[in-house]
Design goal:
five-stranded antiparallel beta sheet; GMP Synthetase, Chain A, domain 3; 19 helices
Amino acid sequence: MAVRSLGCCVRRLLDILQGRAGLRGWPLPVLNSPCRAASRPPGSTLATADTAHPASYHTLREQAARQPAAFWGPLARDSLVWDTPYHTVWDCDFSSGKIGWFLGGQLNVSVNCLDQHVRKSPESIALIWERDEPGTEVRITYRELLETTCRLANMLKRHGVCRGDRVAIYMSVSPMAVAAMLACARIGAVHTVIFAGFSAESLAGRINDAKCKVVITFNQGLRGGRVVELKKIVDEAVKHCPTIQHVLVAHRTDNKVHMGHLDVPLEQLVFDYQPGDVFGCVADIGWITGHSYVVYGPLCNGATSVLFESTPVYPDAGRYWEMVQRLKINQFYGAPTAIRLLLKYGDAWVRKYDRSSLRTLGSVGEPINHEAWEWLHNVVGDSRCTLVDTWWQTETGGICIAPRPSEEGAEILPGMAMRPFFGIVPVLMDEKGNVVEGGNVSGALCLSQAWPGMARTIYRDHQRFVDAYFKAYPGYYFTGDGAHRTEGGYYQITGRMDDVINISGHRLGTAEIEDAMASHPAVPETAVIGYPHNIKGEAAFAFIVLKEDAGDSEVVMSELRSMVATKIAKYAVPDQILIVKRLPKTRSGKVMRRLLRKIITGRAQDLGDTTTLEDPSIIAEILSAYQKHIDKRAADIPEHSPPST
């Protein structure tokens, strides 16, 4: 599979492989760390020929920043199985949005994930499928996974799937879903894995966007003790998908999986992964964390990866920790929203189970608050496990900022991502586009240098890619996040700077919720704002304007919640809906969402410049409506009022 053939997919498999998941045989000096977080993979030497002493974190970081080709070239050459060697390591220019790595090279991702390990150790465990019911786990060897992948790849070919075709995978977390991903990679098809909680309408939209040729699904899925009718959802979705030619249905079994009719230095350095460890990332494979740290990262490293099909509270709040005890998990990687949820149930559910196998805990998906960090570290980790709060994005492909790797004995500060990974060169920018220097400063977080794992384009729309990531700050990649840099040079992520909200680890554009609500015949206008939530991290707050003949407002709000759940997903349903007479708009007709955000987060006394408002009196109007809203909630359900800051 040619490197260039993967350019159509934003979450490119090759990017993931090159950037995070396949760099075994680390040909660089070992990093000294008390938790071995930067140790060289097994079977490789401790130092290169030109150095007699271990290099420090700062030395390697400087080399990666100043000489990216010299740093990454030997890693890719010695760590991956290439069909055709590359001729150029690095050709990138942020001013034009050009991202080029390992030009001319050809490899197959599935070969790097499977074949090379089958040749060495075919009966090693690749996957532990932690099924919905606890205690019914299934272990899959690398040999079995390769055989299933090849059978599915041949089936796809028999149904006319060719190199470059797009395949939608709408399946619950399972070995068959992983095999489907690898089968696509094996024949050069591009997979789009769609979260199995999406509605038929959302599924259809994603299928049409990618112009998929085939959908692979199960008849049913299981989650939290409930049956999910996946095939029925697919059947409804494909009615509106003209490019779909086949729906292939895989079969679940209670034993080994079979077909029916149808990163990484990062992982090793950040999580202290060692041979024989069980890596437990509990993310769904429909999200980038699942792609990178459930599938491609662990498998390229020959690791054992846990596939978690259930929920953190099924059948009870001890599910994660019972699983850790039973499977002897060594690294646990999850989302702060789940940790905040479990924290409410108390310590007893954690202490009930043996967690002595754990060495590293990881947080992903959103900034973790201090209370959740302390509980995860002190209670779950018994104050002995390394806890890494990781920052990265779908677009970067893998972890960019994390406490490890680091110098030996370096501190870890609660709730802070802290240190850039090798090749990551962050800068902070002010509102005028100037670089903010020094410590104890804040700004827009940008990256000044490309690295191998990052996306190279947006499918069929490269100009959109340039406009979204390189236009705001020319010459830099704009992450869309804000950050604070301490006097010590550590980075604290402060949150999104645009209209994307993060609900329980799910990134979602507020416009998508607005569109769903605006389709109601009684709702001509709506504005959705994200606000801090004690459990979810962020929640959606909807301001809506009703038509005069809208009827019973409570009925309308109930219908709106149902519409959002149907059109998007249940997690996207706004926690709060406030009816207003009108929205605050500029003279050009744009809704001033920042004013709404400040009102619902207790910052109404600091609204900033309001001179562009069409009618400034609307502020008092909305404040009055909001005050009545929170007074009513305080009387009914005070614990859910949005927190003041």
